[in-house]
Amino acid sequence: MERSTHGVTPQSEDFSSWYNELVLKAQLADRGAVRGTMVIRPYGYRIWELLQAELDGRIKDTGHDNAYFPLLIPESYFHREAEHVEGFSPELAVVTYAGGKELEDRLVVRPTSETIIGEMMAKWVSSHRDLPLLLNQWANIVRWELRPRLFLRTTEFLWQEGHTAHIDAIDAMRETMLALEMYSQVARDIAAMPVVEGEKTPGERFAGAVRTFSIEGMMRDGKALQAGTSHYMGTNFAKAFGIQYTNDEERVELCHTTSWGMSTRMIGGVIMTHGDDKGLVLPPSKHSGVPVTHV
């Protein structure tokens, strides 16, 4: 197979090999000791920091507060929402032994945080005056991947996950679309990545969601990359975890919740959008004075 002078397979020959070689040769990441994990090297982590700072600023500017929730979640929490546990069961990493003995209630290593955050929301919300509750978490996630690929699909990755509770469907859907727009802004204006916004089919929805929306990045190999998702949960998790409030007429109502996330997969998207046969290419800084073309 032909190789460029920089030692990477040309995109036209094998796009997948080109990508894998570039990530390693550009010293963005390396493979971890556990199958499917990755070590993000300083150069790669700096790209994440820049994307993170831009997104975090937008999240805070729209009234959300950052918080942190535990990495270990009781497995019993997942069984409260049937679609959620069914959707995530194949990807769960479960702790069964700790402190020198078998655990009575097994613990799941966080694959997403709807359950643990739902449990806390139920404690924190009691009145319509407590709503909307707008939270965001920057964290690591573990999902047991069968076909791992650096940045794009790894057993452990970094992300942010927004979780919000609202009075009604109208307010929750407004939040769902606000998050999607934030992702589009970061992708287009910071990563210079062309994206298409749209709704997932019922078969592609997030486990337990009523509606799922995503931004799909257009890569140089002609394929789409899911680069961010936003979910309207309806009252599914509110029913499962008792997230409810008393309205201004003193009636008890269920909250409508949302969740949304963008991960280190975005770094892979930047690589596949801008890189060429000579190696890594990064988009210009928004402060550089070089115009970014919106595709």
Describe the protein.
With 295 residues, the protein is of the alpha+beta class. The protein has a domain at 47-71 and 109-274: BirA Bifunctional Protein, domain 2, CATH 3.30.930. It is 31% helix and 28% strand. It is built from eight helices and 14 strands. It has helices at 15-25, 42-61, 75-78, 82-88, 114-124, 169-190, 236-241, 265-274, and strands at residues 29-31, 38-40, 65-66, 72-74, 94-98, 101-109, 133-142, 156-166, 195-199, 211-218, 224-234, 244-246, 252-254, 256-263. The strands form four sheets. A seven-stranded mixed β-sheet has the order 3-7-8-14-11-10-9, sandwiched between helices. A hairpin with a 2-residue loop joins β5 (94-98) and β6. The two termini are 32 Å apart.
Question: Which secondary structure elements does this structure contain, and how are they paired or packed?
Answer:
Layout: H1 15-25, E1 29-31, E2 38-40, H2 42-61, E3 65-66, E4 72-74, H3 75-78, H4 82-88, E5 94-98, E6 101-109, H5 114-124, E7 133-142, E8 156-166, H6 169-190, E9 195-199, E10 211-218, E11 224-234, H7 236-241, E12 244-246, E13 252-254, E14 256-263, H8 265-274
Parallel strand pairs: 3-7
Antiparallel strand pairs: 1-2, 4-6, 5-6, 7-8, 8-14, 9-10, 10-11, 11-14, 12-13
Helix pairs in contact: 2-6
